[in-house]
Write a sequence for this structure.
């Protein structure tokens, strides 16, 4: 009997498991998310911060036409990565679910409830023949009263709540920054700075005021707000200044270390010469 080839046709239909229990179509959808630009979400005691990298592939593209952050309801926003067309379909569904809840119960939908409804929809597309999974992940953030919530939805329909998270191509460097520097008691301003620092690392320093989009949902106002171009420019300028200062400090430290090493080498050389003279 010949051994089975890798995949061996198990990736041709979403409803077929491989012998080792994998759904290859779902994994391919995750790869589509990993190839997307980086999107981040950070939870603070004053609200939620959503930041996305929306770099354009050509200088002829109007940057404002690229939308990666969406308002779902007055108190909820979402950042996306992956296939933008799939993300728009999910956002439209989220907006409908939010309005249905408002009409039915006469109150805003819970952030957790909305995230679960979107994941339920995603999960259905992993269980029916003739369809494919959504090639998009969403970071859904919002406020319910004094409570701030931040969720990440996976193409499989999995749902995880985070204090700070990232999706897209720069997940690794961004999550390292969050792991090292996130503070539960951070303010909204500190959360914006942290998110931008993580984005700077995720994009290898290719962060400009035209490639960044920022939205906040504040506890004080219970309202979603996208920052203006001037506000974004101010934050990005401060980010670049911080990184220039850090690079200069690192350069000074390296120079100081080199001087110390040279001094130690000279002293060792002098000691060796003195030892040789004593032996003679």
């Amino acid at each position: 009997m010949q051994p089975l080839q890798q995949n061996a046709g198990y990736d041709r239909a979403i409803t077929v498991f491989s012998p080792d229990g994998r759904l290859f179509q779902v994994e391919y959808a995750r790869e589509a998310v990993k190839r997307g630009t980086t999107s981040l979400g950070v939870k603070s005691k004053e609200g939620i911060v959503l930041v996305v990298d929306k770099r354009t592939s050509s200088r002829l593209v109007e940057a404002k036409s690229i939308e990666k952050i969406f308002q779902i309801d007055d108190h909820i926003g979402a950042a996306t990565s992956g296939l933008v067309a799939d993300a728009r379909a999910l956002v439209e569904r989220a907006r409908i679910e939010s309005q249905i809840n408002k009409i039915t119960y006469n109150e805003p939908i819970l952030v957790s409830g909305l995230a679960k409804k979107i994941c339920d929809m995603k999960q259905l597309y992993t269980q029916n023949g003739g369809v494919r999974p959504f090639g998009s992940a969403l970071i859904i953030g919002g406020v319910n009263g004094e409570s701030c919530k931040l969720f990440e939805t996976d193409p499989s329909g999995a749902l995880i709540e985070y204090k700070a998270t990232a999706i897209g191509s720069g997940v690794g460097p961004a999550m390292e920054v969050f792991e090292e520097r996130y503070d539960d008691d951070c303010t909204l301003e500190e959360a914006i700075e942290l998110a931008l620092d993580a984005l700077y690392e995720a994009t290898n320093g290719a962060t400009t005021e035209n490639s960044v989009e920022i939205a906040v949902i504040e506890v004080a106002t219970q309202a979603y707000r996208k920052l203006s171009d001037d506000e974004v420019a101010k934050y990005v300028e401060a980010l670049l200044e911080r990184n220039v200062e850090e690079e200069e400090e690192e350069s000074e430290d390296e120079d100081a270390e080199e001087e110390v090493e040279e001094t130690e080498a000279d002293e060792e050389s002098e000691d060796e010469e003195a030892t040789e003279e004593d032996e003679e």
In short: The mean pLDDT is 88. Residues 54 and 67 are 8 Å apart (CA to CA). The helical segments are 24-34, 84-105, 111-124, 171-181, 188-202, 229-279.
